[in-house]
Description:
Blueprint: H1 2-26, H2 31-61, H3 72-106, E1 110-111, E2 115-118, E3 135-143, E4 151-160, E5 166-178, E6 182-190, E7 197-207, E8 215-223, E9 228-235, E10 246-248, E11 254-260, E12 266-275, E13 280-289, E14 297-301, E15 313-321, E16 327-337, E17 339-340, E18 342-344, E19 348-350, E20 354-360, E21 370-376, E22 378-382, E23 387-392, E24 396-405, E25 411-421, H4 439-443, H5 454-458, H6 480-534, E26 539-547, E27 555-563, E28 571-575, E29 583-592, H7 595-606, E30 619-622, E31 625-629, E32 634-636
Parallel strand pairs: 10-16, 17-25, 19-25, 29-32
Antiparallel strand pairs: 1-3, 2-3, 3-6, 4-5, 4-7, 7-8, 9-11, 11-14, 12-13, 12-15, 15-16, 18-20, 20-23, 21-24, 22-23, 24-25, 26-27, 26-29, 28-29, 30-31
Helix pairs in contact: 1-2, 1-3, 2-3
Amino acid sequence: MMMRYFQKAVALVAVSLCICGAASAQTPQAPDGAQMEREVTSLQSELAAATARMTELEGVYGDLPWTRDKTDEFVALGRSVDALRAQIIAIGARLAGLTAANAAVAANVSVAPLRASLDTYGGPPLPATVAEGAALAFETTVRHPAGDSPHIANLSWRVLDSAGRPLPGIANDQQVAESGTTKSYGFTFRLGDFPNGKYRMVFTYTPVLDQTQAVTVESGFTISQPIRIARVVVSPDTAATQHANTLYVEQVPHLFVYFSAGDLSAVSVDFVLRAADGSERYRKRVERPLKPGEAETRVGLLPDPGIVREGDDLVFSATLIGPDGFAVSREVPFAVRGHTASINLAARLTSNEPVPFSIEAPSYFTPPLRVELSPSSATASLTGATSGTLVAIGDGDGALRAMVTDAQGRIARARASFVIVPAQPPAVAATPPAQSNAWVTALDSTQTPQSDDWVTALDSTQPAQAPPPPEPPQPAGPTIAEALATFQSQVAQIQADKQAGLDAIQDKQQTEMQNFLQKQQGAQNTLSAQGKAGAATVYWVVYVEDICGPQNGLGCPSVSVTSGPQPPATGFSNPNPSAPGRFLRVTKAYGTLSAQEAQRIAAGIQNRTLSTSDYFPITRRSVQGYEGFSGPLVRHGPGVQAR
Length: 643
């Protein structure tokens, strides 16, 4: 008996689980289904408790004979299980009726065929083929069935390829609850870089309570484009294949577009640079012949000098246009930033008092570093490679700017602001009070004032003292106007003395500063003169850089040291036959009176520990050759120019 009840309870638990799962899957938001799900959950909990208790009693009694009158608890459990079974059967009947009613209602659903258009709903019909960047719009009309309560359904949009696989990222799902209404539903998207082929847009209307009544409509389209852009790249590297989001100001931005063009024999490329506000900064079209069948082709461009500046936020776009007018575009943003240094300097300076400062260059800068200072309302001088002394002048606001250049030609800028306050004047001795007929003397009393306020002190509440003996009459004191004039004269004299002291201090400090600067200039002149008199030979560091092939634009530099009173031949040579007016080689020279210095420079440039821009002018090179320079091609150190 006990085992029979136990087995029956276990079976009911299984039945309740099946009904609960069906209700949960088919009626997640239907009002009746939700209520029935809660009822079944409650019944399931009660059955689980009864089963657990029966299992416990099974362990106590085992297979011993027993009767209902001896086990009242089993009697109660049996009645409870019978009642639970009846309730579950009733709920099952209600669910079956609800599903049947929903199926009958769903049979009245009407879904119109998809309407496909280009750009927007109601736009022109889709052409025979579409390409990357095209906007596709699909729309349908659904007539929802009427009923006593809203009819709940799921709507889904999917794009499938020729193998029936959904395209990732192009999908939409929504749930609606309508009764007796007719509504339009749509889905629009823009084509990305999808392979050529046939595709289908599929719309599915699925009733929540009976998924077997789903209705599906679809519309096909074909993607076909002769040109495909793989990527667009901005980079300082001529061989770059990946985009750089940020360039430093000294780096030259090379613009590239990588693409495939199938069997096309030629293509036009529009290179465009736009600022963050959308304004066009640069545009150039390049015509490029192609070799049919190439898997990937690259076209690059070097913008004109001055187009890209520090602080710019730009967008580079490349548009490829085929002979038949087909065009496809791709764009990428990038920023141009400068290197940042910092200046350690007090924010409050005293006029004409020297204070130390130091400059911190970026940690990745390569020494040696060259520092240039631009002080405002101050005089600054370097005492070390990145440290120095600053003397503020006058009063008010001032600033110190620094530009740090490393061995690779990278430039970092820094700025420090400060406030200048006047120096404290020397103490001026107070003028003792006059002992003559000053009106203060006339007010003097033999009584001691009791506070700092002489008026209050004269109006004291202390007992009156015996009157002093009569004094001989004194001559009349000055009037108030005369006393005030005397006081103002004394104040003016104090101010004049103060200003004279400030002027004397400032003159002395300026004289000391001028003497210091003159001594430094004299020492430099002496060294230059000694170098001129004692050197018999000038040593020339010669730097030659060739274009390694006119097409790839790579440089092949070489460094050597020669000697002689005249610099070696410099300039541009070897005209580039593919670019008239431009050259394949440039030769530069730097002269010094020291053979050791010349060897040090040559070795440093060869192993890249020294920057060529520290000794030679900067020449600009494009993929077509050298095309300009920023100064004389011959430079020299101290003492050489005088020869």
